Amino acid sequence: MNDLLSKTDLQALPMARDKLSFVYLEHCNINRQDGAVTVTDARGTVHIPGAVISVLLLGPGTNISHRAVELIGELGANAVWVGEHGVRYYAHGRSLTHSSGLLIKQAELVTNVRTRISVARAMYQMRFPDEDVSSLTMQQLRGKEGSRVRSVYRELSRKTGVAWNGREYDPDDYESGNPVNQALSAAHACLYGVVHSVVTALGCSPGLGFIHTGHDRSFVYDIADLYKAEITIPAAFEMAAGNPDDIGGATRRVVRDKISDGRILDRTVKDIRRLLLADENDIEKNEDYEVLNIWDGKDKYVKSGISYGKDLDENGSFDQRLDDGYGVILEDE
Fold it and tell me: What letter would DSSP give residue 80?
């Protein structure tokens, strides 16, 4: 049991493909019994082995215990608190890694116009693997992507017989949308939850997007858009054609199966690394997650956990010596 409950190593993240992609829960009590998450509602109690969970999507009416959250953290899973039908995001659990390596790399890339465009082009290149987009502007790339997505909608509408008049939905009124738009909202929300979990597990910032910007999940939307035409849009049209009573729940189950079959968790980890790390050898440097240093100016670092300035204290307090005009001893002096 101790081996089962040990914290997941960051390097084992690609093996998340062997887990359930996500479990959506609402109106229930969530607890822990040994290595399992227990879910209790009016119908009884279900045990879900903790080791098979990647993401818990916690909807309205869920009460989760400290012990259940403890188990989720121990097993390298994540929890995302969402709204009704899973279509609103509220909060998520912490990162699995203690390293800021990928986060620093992400920040470096997104704050430089040249490298930001380079990463954005790489994201679009993944949609157009047989074309060269390296010289296209962002405006041209957006137009090309818009045309591709509209073509996907038209083709799926033709195949399924589901009428398509465009993406129309009110995030504050899920029920106001037509069946296919309801299904799209539910499908995309599931994908966002899974991608958000991977982004935070790797220690990246959900808010530092390369194509999307200004939102606290901009990077999540960047990555999720890579898979919509393959997973969530077809699932939504498939469900709308069948017109089930609970189209949100039915869509979530189909998306869950498609994500599991498509190994999206594994692909998401690899895609994020490939986009942020020019050289795969950089991965090892970014996974040294037990190291904590103190920045020493420029690109230099010193060890943390050490009391610096003792030599100054021997001749009076550090603050007093500053007041007396000694100043700060810089590395170049």
Answer: E
Phi and psi at 230, nearest 5°, equal: -90, -35
What residues have CB less than 8 Å from 182, skipping those under 6 apart? 85, 169, 174, 175, 247, 248, 251
d(C-alpha 262, C-alpha 247), whole Å = 22
Contact present, 164 and 201 (Cβ < 8 Å): no
Yes or no: say if 147 and 292 are a contact pair by the CB < 8 Å rule.
no
In the structure encoding, which two tokens stand for residue 249, read together? 């729940």
* End-to-end CA separation in angstroms for the chain: 56
Question: Considering only CA atoms, which of 158, 159, 178 is closest in space to residue 169?
Answer: 178
Report domain extents, the chain. Answer: 10-92, 101-285, 302-333
Q: Which two tokens stand for residue 183?
A: 């299904």
* Cα–Cα distance, 230 to 126 (Å, whole number): 12
Bridge partners for 32 per DSSP: 37
Mean pLDDT of the chain: 80
In the chain, % helix, strand, coil (3-state, to 5) comes to 50, 15, 40
CA torsion 119-81-18-266 (nearest 10°) is 0
320 pLDDT higher than 90: no
| Matching CATH number, 101-285, of 1.20.120.920, 3.40.250.10, 1.10.10.10, 3.20.20.150 | 1.20.120.920
The pTM (predicted TM-score) of the whole model is 0.70
Q: Taking 50 as the threshold, does the pLDDT of residue 16 lie above it?
A: no
10-92 has which CATH code?
3.100.10.20
For residue 155, what are its two tokens? Answer: 């083709």
